[in-house]
Task: inverse folding
C-alpha cells in the first residue's frame, strides 16, 4: 500500500495509540474552536493527533470532510513517519534527512482511474472550497486560511517545486496566495513575464514524509517530487490534474488536492495572518497572487489537514531545514556536530555545535549559516553543548563568552524575513554572530564533573532500591537545571 | 518606519495591522473584523 495520511494514522494507532484523539462534538474551525482546543492542550504540553469528526465547513454545515490536526508535532510522530527508532536523537534524525535528500527517488504516474485522490472530482461551477472545514487560526486573521504546501512547475526545466505558502480564502473558487521571494515566486514571475497563467495545486493532506520533502531547501534545479520520494522511501505516486492533464501532475494518494492557476498581473490584498514567528503577519498585496481554483480532487471520507504555528515543536518542518544547514555549514568547515533550528526560540536564530580545530572556524560556520534561509543570529558552541537544550545554551553563553570579544554585530546587509516584526527596513536585516566556543590558544577551566570511572562503578540501584526510586517524583519545576 | 502600520476601520472602528507598502498603493484595505473593503482616505486613523 502506498504511503498516505491514512497509512500514517494506522502506524500511529499501532505505535502510540494514546496519542490519537477523535472529537465527535461539532466544532467551527472558522470561529477559532479548533485553535482553542489545540491551545488548551498545548498549555498542558499535550500534542495528540486530533481527528475532528464533525467540523463545520465554510458554509456553516457539517460536511463529508473531516479535519486532522497535530500530525506535525513531536519527535516521536516524525520518527514513526520516517520509520526511525524512538531512541534516535534529534541530531541523528537531521542526518537521516540529509541522506534521504541525497538518495532521491523519481515519482511514478498512475492513470486517473487508479488514483485515490480522483475518487471525487469537482470542476467548473461545482468547485466550492467552502465545502472544506478551513480554519481561522488566530485573532485578526484576514479570513480562513490554507497553509499546507503548494506545487508549481518551472516552465523551462519542467521541475516541480513544493513549498509552504499561506493563502487566504477569498471566495468559493479563489484564494490570495502570499509568495515569499523564493522558488515559487521565481516560477510564478517567469510565467507572469511571459503573460501566461502559472499552473498550481495545493495538497491538503498527505503522509508527513510528503510534507517533510516539501520543506526541502536545496537548489532550484532539483525536482521536489524526487526529494519527496527520498523521504517516503518509495516513489511518490502522481496522476494528471484536471486542469492541465499530464502537463501538470498531482499527488495520487493525497487526501485533497485543489488545483488551478496563479493569474499573471493580478494582486490581491491578503492578511493579517498569525504567522510562524508568533506574531501577526501584516496585511499586504505586492507578492499576494490571485489563485483561481478550477478543480477539487479528494478521496472518499477525505481528511483535511492543517497546522497551527507556532504551537509545539514541529520536526516536520524544522528537521529538513536543520539538514540543509548541516549541508551548507559542513561545506565551509569540518567538525560540525549539530544544528538546532526547532522551536520558537530558533526563529531567525541558529544554534551550531562543533569541534573547533582552528580559531576562526566558528566565524566561518556562522558565515555559512548566514547565507541560508532567514538567519539573523548565529550562536556557535563547542561539541559538548547540547544545542537542543536551552539550559546548556544559556550556560555556555554565560560562561564562555566575553561580549566585547566574541559578539559581532553585522550591518543590515542581509535579506531578512517580511514576517520579522523587528525589521526597521522593508526586508533587510542586521545580524549577530556569537562565538561561544572555548579558546584554543590559552588555558580554559575544564568543566567540573564526576569521574567517568565512578559513574560506571556506582550503580544507583545498589544504593536506592528500584521500588523506592520509582516513587521519588520528577521535579518538573526545575527548568533551569 | 517599521514593518507594520495600524489601520482603523471606518465602519467597526477596530484596529488591524498592515504593511507600510499598502500606503499610497491605491489598493483598498480589508477589515478582518467586519469584512469591509475601504480606501486609505476613509480610515479615521492610521498610526505609522
Result:
Amino acid at each position: 500500500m502506498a504511503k498516505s495520511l491514512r497509512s500514517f494514522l494506522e502506524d500511529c494507532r499501532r505505535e502510540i495509540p494514546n496519542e490519537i484523539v477523535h472529537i465527535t462534538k461539532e466544532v467551527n474551525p472558522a470561529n477559532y474552536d479548533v485553535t482553542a482546543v489545540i491551545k488548551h492542550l498545548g498549555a498542558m504540553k499535550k500534542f495528540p493527533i486530533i481527528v475532528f469528526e464533525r467540523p463545520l465547513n465554510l458554509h456553516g454545515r457539517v460536511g463529508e470532510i473531516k479535519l486532522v490536526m497535530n500530525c506535525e508535532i513531536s519527535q516521536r510522530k516524525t520518527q514513526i513517519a520516517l520509520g526511525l527508532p524512538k531512541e534516535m536523537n534529534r541530531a541523528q534524525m537531521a542526518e537521516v534527512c540529509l541522506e534521504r535528500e541525497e538518495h532521491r527517488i523519481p515519482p511514478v504516474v498512475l492513470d486517473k482511474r487508479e488514483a485515490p485522490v480522483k475518487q471525487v472530482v469537482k470542476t467548473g461551477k461545482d468547485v466550492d472550497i467552502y465545502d472544506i472545514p478551513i480554519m481561522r487560526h488566530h485573532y485578526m486573521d484576514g479570513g480562513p486560511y490554507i497553509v499546507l504546501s503548494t506545487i508549481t512547475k518551472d516552465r523551462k526545466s519542467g521541475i516541480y517545486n513544493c513549498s509552504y505558502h499561506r493563502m487566504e480564502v477569498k471566495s468559493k473558487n479563489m484564494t490570495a496566495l502570499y509568495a515569499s521571494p523564493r522558488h515559487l515566486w521565481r516560477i510564478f514571475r517567469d510565467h507572469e513575464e511571459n503573460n501566461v497563467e502559472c499552473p498550481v495545486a495545493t495538497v491538503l493532506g498527505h503522509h508527513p514524509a510528503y510534507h517533510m520533502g516539501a520543506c526541502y531547501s536545496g537548489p532550484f534545479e532539483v525536482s521536489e517530487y524526487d526529494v519527496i520520494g527520498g523521504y517516503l522511501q518509495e516513489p511518490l505516486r502522481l496522476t494528471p490534474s484536471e486542469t492541465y492533464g499530464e502537463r501538470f501532475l498531482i499527488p495520487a494518494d493525497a487526501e485533497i488536492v485543489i488545483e488551478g492557476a496563479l493569474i499573471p498581473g493580478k494582486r490581491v490584498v491578503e492578511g493579517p495572518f498569525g504567522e510562524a514567528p508568533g506574531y501577526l503577519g501584516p496585511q499586504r498585496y505586492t507578492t499576494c497572487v490571485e489563485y483561481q481554483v478550477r478543480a477539487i480532487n479528494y478521496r472518499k471520507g477525505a481528511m483535511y489537514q492543517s497546522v497551527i504555528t507556532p504551537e509545539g515543536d514541529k520536526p516536520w518542518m524544522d528537521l529538513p531545514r536543520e539538514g540543509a544547514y548541516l549541508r551548507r555549514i559542513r561545506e565551509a568547515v569540518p567538525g560540525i556536530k549539530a544544528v538546532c533550528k526547532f522551536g520558537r526560540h530558533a526563529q531567525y536564530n541558529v544554534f551550531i555545535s562543533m569541534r573547533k580545530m582552528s580559531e576562526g572556524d566558528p566565524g566561518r560556520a556562522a558565515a555559512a549559516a548566514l547565507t541560508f534561509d532567514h538567519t539573523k543570529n548565529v550562536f556557535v558552541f563547542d561539541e559538548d553543548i547540547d544545542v537542543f537544550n536551552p539550559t546548556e545554551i544559556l550556560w555556555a553563553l554565560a560562561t564562555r563568552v566575553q561580549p566585547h570579544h566574541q559578539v559581532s554585530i553585522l550591518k543590515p546587509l542581509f535579506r531578512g524575513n517580511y514576517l520579522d516584526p523587528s525589521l526597521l527596513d522593508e526586508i533587510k536585516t542586521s545580524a549577530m554572530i556569537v562565538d561561544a566556543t572555548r579558546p584554543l590558544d590559552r588555558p580554559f577551566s575544564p568543566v567540573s564533573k564526576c569521574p567517568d570511572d565512578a559513574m560506571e562503578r556506582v550503580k544507583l540501584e545498589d544504593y536506592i532500591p528500584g521500588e523506592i526510586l520509582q516513587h521519588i517524583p520528577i521535579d518538573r519545576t526545575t527548568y533551569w537545571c | 518606519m517599521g514593518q507594520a502600520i495600524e489601520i482603523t476601520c471606518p465602519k467597526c472602528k477596530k484596529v488591524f495591522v498592515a504593511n507600510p507598502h499598502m500606503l499610497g498603493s491605491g489598493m483598498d484595505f480589508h477589515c478582518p473584523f467586519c469584512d469591509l473593503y475601504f480606501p486609505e482616505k476613509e480610515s479615521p486613523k492610521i498610526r505609522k
